Amino acid sequence: MVYIRTMKAFNIVLIEPEIPPNTGNIARLCAATGAILHLVGKLGFSIDDRYLKRAGLDYWGFVTLKQWPDLESLQAAAAEGRFFYLSTKAARSYLRAGFQPGDYIVFGKETKGLPEELLAANPDTAITIPMPAGAVRSLNLSTSAGIVLYEALRQCGVIE
Predict the structure, then answer these.
(1) Strands lying side by side in the sheet with 104-107
(2) Among 128, 130, 152, 154, which Cα is nearest to 10's?
(3) What is the pLDDT of residues 35-65, one digit of tens each?
């Protein structure tokens, strides 16, 4: 039996997302899971973009959306929060992250990922999604967000 129980919401953070359908798909993911969507920095599209809205379908009313000028502003507002940084350059698997309700799961822009300085400054919370076949550099942003968020929910006993 699959169930979902109430808990402190996870936070999905997109730094300078560039592709509207990815952000729209992630918004739908947040609506389905109760996660909060944080958009940080300069967006590669307008928040009113029709492709963004289309990808999110009619679920936008169920999304808690917050916008931040930069990551530092978000981190200052969430000083007690735990931040995990997703990157293909990290060595630690997301499966070993030990997520807790309320965590912030941070993704970089589609074309560049997260800045190397950010990863270097946070080696204990830089995580990756292993790709055992080694045939691709990275997964799609919305696919990655779904994989990691559902694992976080599983680890916290929210779903089984």
Answers:
(1) 64-68, 36-40, 11-15, 104-107, 83-86, 126-128, 92-93
(2) 152
(3) 999 999 999 877 775 666 665 557 778 889 9
Alpha helices in 64-113 (DSSP H): 71-77
- Give the domain ranges of the chain: 11-155
Q: What is the DSSP letter of 48?
A: T
CATH topology of domain 11-155: Alpha/beta knot (3.40.1280)
DSSP label at residue 9: P
pTM score: 0.91
Strands 36-40 and 64-68: parallel
Q: What is the Cα–Cα distance from 27 to 17, expressed in whole angstroms?
A: 12
**Dist. CA 20–CA 54, nearest whole Å:** 9
